[in-house]
Amino acid sequence: MAKKAITSRSKSPVKARAAVMPPKIVATQSTKPKAGRRKSLKPKPWTEAEVVEAFSRFQRANPEPKGELEHLNPYTLLVAVALSAQATDVGVNKATRHLFPVADTPEKMVALGEERLRDYIKTIGLYRTKAKNVIALSEQLIVLHGSQVPRDRAALEALPGVGRKTANVVLNIAFGEPTIAVDTHLFRVGNRTGLAPGKTPLAVELGLLEIVPPQFARHAHHWLILHGRYTCIARRPRCEVCIINDLCRWPEKTV
Can you tell me the distance from the alpha carbon of 186 to that of 164, in angstroms, rounded to the nearest whole number? Predict the structure, then answer.
């Protein structure tokens, strides 16, 4: 009997500890879903009135925005935009200021040749590949389009070195089409502000095409790119001077 009594008393503390453990485990598990729900919250979409207000402000601040790539005609614009991939507009302009006076048509560019073209653009990243593409697209323009830049997205994207963004820039600037070219700056603005969030440039582009009012469509591309380049910059965005900071949905804005 004494042994049984000792055994029963020796087990009682274990049972007591076991009895208090489940509440701790349950409490720990119950906090995880709450944190997950907080992370999954999405910013409230912009209203139609807010979108109109934002672009009205952009328009008042800069009624006729311009692209910053220097060019002489639709052909040199096409070349400049093709050269600007993974490069800055400033860097491209430095090179094309010497190039375009001697090669401002497809015929002149082909006559210049790939090797001499490389010498003009060697300060631009990926210049060897870009030189090859510029000569090839110039040859195609001569053969397929009578040396003219086509006002057609499919025809533009069929040219060597020309993708959707390049085609959108050319259609917008050269022909006044209401296209939106999503570069790094515009992609950041669309997502950071919540104006047109998307995981890919195409998603952001399509989102903007849905919400930008027709009266702002032609210049929306420039307003947003310039806003991302000079105000909504990647590091330390200048929220204090942003003209749409009260509309922006970014939770980390400084005002």
Answer: 14
Integer-rounded Cα Rg, in Å, for the chain is 29
Q: Establish if 27 belongs to a structural domain.
A: no
Our CA angle for 238, 240, 244, nearest 5°, is: 90
pTM of this structure:
0.80
CA distances to 22, 55, 198, 254 from 211, in Å: 52, 11, 14, 26
SS3 212: coil
Q: Which of 44, 89, 119, 165 is catalytic?
A: 165
Judge whether 104 counts as a catalytic residue: no
Length, in residues, of the chain? 255
Q: Which of 132, 183, 246, 253 is catalytic?
A: 183
Q: Has 94 been annotated as catalytic?
A: no
pLDDT at position 181, please?
94
Domain end among 175, 197, 214:
175
